[in-house]
Amino acid sequence: MLNGFDIASNQYDNTFTFSNIGKAQRSRVFKYINPIISTGEKLSILEINCGTGEDAIHFAKLGHQVIATDISEGMINIAKSKKHPKNVIFKTQDINTITEQLFDRKFDFIFSNFGGVNCLSKPQLDAFLKKAISLQKPNGKLVIVLMPKQCLWEQFYFSLKGDLKKAKRRNTNKSILANVDGVSVPTWYYNPKDIVFLTKSLYQLNSIKPIGISIPPSYLENSFLAKKPTLNILKGIDSILTGSYWAKYADHFLIELTKK
Fold this sequence. Notes:
By secondary structure, the protein is α/β, with parallel strands linked by helices. The protein contains nine helices and nine strands. The chain has helices spanning 4-17, 20-37, 54-61, 73-81, 122-135, 152-160, 164-167, 192-199, 230-240, and strands at residues 44-47, 65-70, 88-92, 107-112, 136-146, 176-180, 183-187, 203-211, 252-259.
């Protein structure tokens, strides 16, 4: 049965993965996770909501053993169609039904990029975080990249257009229908403190970083903001505003945790 991401999968790489904004935001993510994945140690990695597999393939090229999962068969099919090393396995898998029994290993690193877990309600997210612990080796790392409630770019852009409802749409505890390549997907937004609260008994907090405090959201790809030299200036600002204070105001934020 097709879900929203199956429908969006054919255009996802064009509209985000290979877009100027998508590449700029991904570069910021890897700035923060490179100390984990580039030590020379070969890791066992589980990626959740891997989309079209861009990150998983990168991990595999570094020599890590990777299992990459996504609920969307369309996304997984595109990931499988890409040239990739044998040490990455792509699996269609709902995050809500992940269990230890599905895998033949424990993981050093569990990763989810660009708002995949924003598709989870708070009870579902809480359940996933508890499952993640059981899937990890001692001192395993968990890194998730989420969309917060108070994105400054979104507030500014939609306020400028006179659409105050959209300007404030993220700032709610309820789900909203977010547009993903023309498909409406139920989405919940979480601030860093929400994740800290849910994980405090399970994980040690390592860092919280903004992703896209000055780099704009991907729906502005066709504007001058995504073109040189403007985007280069915005990327430079992002490289300066790296404190955790800015995380709740960015398009996304990254939180890095270590299993207790």
